[in-house]
Specification:
This protein is of the alpha+beta class and 99 residues long. The protein contains two helices and five strands. It has a five-stranded mixed sheet with strand order 2-1-5-3-4, with helices on one face. Strand 1 and strand 2 form a beta hairpin. The protein is globular and about 35 Å long. It binds FE2/S2 (inorganic) cluster. The site of FE2/S2 (inorganic) cluster has 12 residues, from loops.
């Protein structure tokens, strides 16, 4: 599959099909916190999905457990546990406070 792009905090990021959001962001030089090293235990990589939520896979078991424990809204996703999709528009937590 050809590379595609998505947006985070107004920046366009190139990605490949099996990239996590975190992998694609870090490769593009977008600073996204990831204190636990992408093991899904810290929550610091949480991003807010502004558009394209339906393009994402459902939460894996690691993310689902944290989402349940921390009362995530559907738009809140862990960048390290979520595979990127074309047409996404995301905000990092420093740009979007939880409503
Ligand atoms: S980097 Fe820790 S949960 Fe994603």
């Amino acid at each position: 599959m050809k590379p595609f792009s998505f947006e985070i905090d107004g920046l366009l990021v190139q990605a490949s099909q099996n990239d996590s959001i975190l992998e694609a962001c870090l490769r593009a030089g977008v600073k996204l916190d990831h204190s636990c090293g992408a093991s899904g235990s810290c929550g610091t990589c949480r991003v807010w999905v502004e558009s394209g939520l339906t393009h994402l896979d459902t939460r894996n078991s690691v993310e689902a457990e944290m989402a349940h424990d921390r009362d995530f809204l559907p738009e809140e996703r862990l960048a390290c546990q979520t595979r990127v999709a074309a047409g996404l528009s995301l905000k990092s937590p420093r740009f979007k406070a939880k409503p």
